[in-house]
């Protein structure tokens, strides 16, 4: 009986051990399936990570390019502002020069007008003097003719009585 009990106990132990082995094999198979799923998931996540790294690098390059573009735009804006300031200063100087030239033109026009008035007066005076000269010349000629006529009369009267 001891032997049968031992045999039953051993059979029970073998069944329990077989059950444990089956459970462990089942657990191992589940773990293997989970490991396979985890490996696939790890590969997917690694792919996503690689994509994210590439996207991050592209975003970083785009950010650096945007910063460079912003610096360039700021430099261009500063240059344009300075050029605008220079042009404004040049415009003011040209406006001042134009105002000065306009003043000189106005003064020259006033002087020209005054000279024209003086010239008109001079022409009037010259015409008047020419008329006076002509009148004096006519008067002198008339006096000369009268003188000659009187001399002729005087000679005639001297010549008759002599």
Could you tell me the mean pLDDT?
Answer: 92
The whole-angstrom Rg is 67 Å
N-C termini distance: 228 Å
Report the structural category. Answer: mainly alpha
How many separate structural domains? Answer: 1
Counting copies of identical and different chains, the oligomeric state is single chain
Relative helix content: over 70%
> What order do the SSEs take from the amino end to the carboxyl end, as H and E?
H
| Main pleated-sheet profile | none
Indicate the overall shape: rod-shaped
**What are the segments in which pLDDT stays under 50 over at least 5 consecutive residues?**
none
Number of strands: 0
Count of helical regions: 1
Residue share in β-strands: under 5%
Explain the overall architecture.
The chain has one domain (1-115). It starts with a helix and ends with a helix. The protein is rod-shaped. The mean pLDDT is 92. 99% of the residues lie in helices and 0% in strands. It is mostly helical and 162 residues long.
Provide keyphrases for this structure:
about 160 residues, mainly alpha, 1 helix, rod-shaped
SSE topology sketch:
Layout: H1 2-161
Brief summary:
The chain is mainly alpha-helical and 162 residues long. 99% of the residues lie in helices and 0% in strands.
């Amino acid at each position: 009986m001891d032997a049968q009990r031992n045999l039953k106990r051993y059979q029970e132990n073998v069944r329990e051990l077989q059950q444990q082995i089956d459970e462990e094999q089942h657990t191992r198979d589940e773990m293997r399936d989970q490991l396979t799923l985890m490996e696939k998931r790890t590969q997917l996540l690694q792919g996503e990570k690689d994509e994210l790294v590439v996207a991050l690098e592209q975003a970083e390059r785009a950010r650096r390019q945007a910063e460079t573009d912003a610096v360039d735009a700021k430099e261009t804006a500063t240059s344009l502002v300075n050029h605008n300031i220079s042009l404004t200063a040049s415009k003011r100087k040209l406006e001042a020069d134009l105002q000065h030239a306009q003043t000189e033109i106005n003064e020259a026009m006033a002087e020209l007008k005054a000279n024209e008035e003086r010239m008109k007066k001079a022409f009037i005076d010259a015409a008047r003097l020419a008329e006076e000269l002509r009148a004096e010349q006519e008067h002198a000629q008339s006096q000369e003719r009268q003188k000659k006529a009187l001399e002729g009369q005087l000679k005639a009267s001297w010549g008759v009585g002599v």
